[in-house]
Automatic annotation (TrEMBL):
Signal peptide: none annotated. Keywords: Glycoprotein, Membrane, Transmembrane, Transmembrane helix. It comes from the Eukaryota. This is Uncharacterized protein. The keyword Glycoprotein applies. The keyword Mitochondrion does not apply. Its main location: membrane.
Amino acid sequence: MAKKMIKFVLRQFKRETAFINVTVNQMLFEGYEDPLIRSICNKSLIHNLCIDAGIPMRVKFLENGTDDGEYLIDTGLEDNSKIGRIYKWNGQNEVPWWSTAQARKINGTNGELFSPFLSTSNNLPIFIGDLGR
């Protein structure tokens, strides 16, 4: 069903494909304008919905030269299974904007640094400051 829907949408924009050629610099730092998003959001009936939903015309995966806050993490010196574990983010051990205690917890790593010898059966919680989760 999803495949049929994607084909239908792509048929509406005959020159568009699911792939785009961009440089690494554009993909990671500068961003690039996605022709499919631009085509859809430039339609008069949809334009205001794109603005209201905050859909960006430029796609960018990394924010160059920025940080998402200060982290207090475990070095793993005393217990290497705790390496990279986040204890606090911006001085807080939980985030305020979720409704349950479990959702407010800051736990896990940021996904860049974690204990050695993990297996596929290990649970690896990740905290991303930009997402607040």
